[in-house]
Amino acid sequence: MTEMQTQEFGNLVLDKKIVAALTDMGFEEPSPIQSQAIPLALEGKDVIGQAQTGTGKTAAFGIPIIQGLSERGKQVEALIMSPTRELAVQVAEEVSNIGKTKHVRVLPVYGGQPIERQIKSLKRGVQIVIGTPGRLLDHIRRGTIHLDHVRYLVLDEADEMLDMGFIDDMEEIMKNIPSERQTMLFSATMPLPILSLTKKYMRAPKLVTVSKEELTVPLIEQYYFETRDKVEGLSRLLDAEIDGRLIIFCRTKKGVDNLASALQSRGYSAEGLHGDLSQNQRDRVMKKFRDGSLDILIATDVAARGLDIDNVNFVINYDIPQDPESYVHRIGRTGRAGNSGVAMTFITPREFRQLKLIERVAKTKIKRRELPSVGDVLERQREQIVGRMETLLDMGNYHDYMPIVATLSKEYEVEDVAAAALKMMQEGAAALETPKENKGSSMENTGGRPGMVRFFVNIGRSQRITVPELVRTIAIEADIPARSVGLINIYDKFTFVEIPEEYAERVLGAMQHNTIRGHRINMEPAKAR
Ligand code: AMP
Question: For ligand 1, atom 8, which residue shows the shortest CA distance?
Answer without folding.
Answer: 56
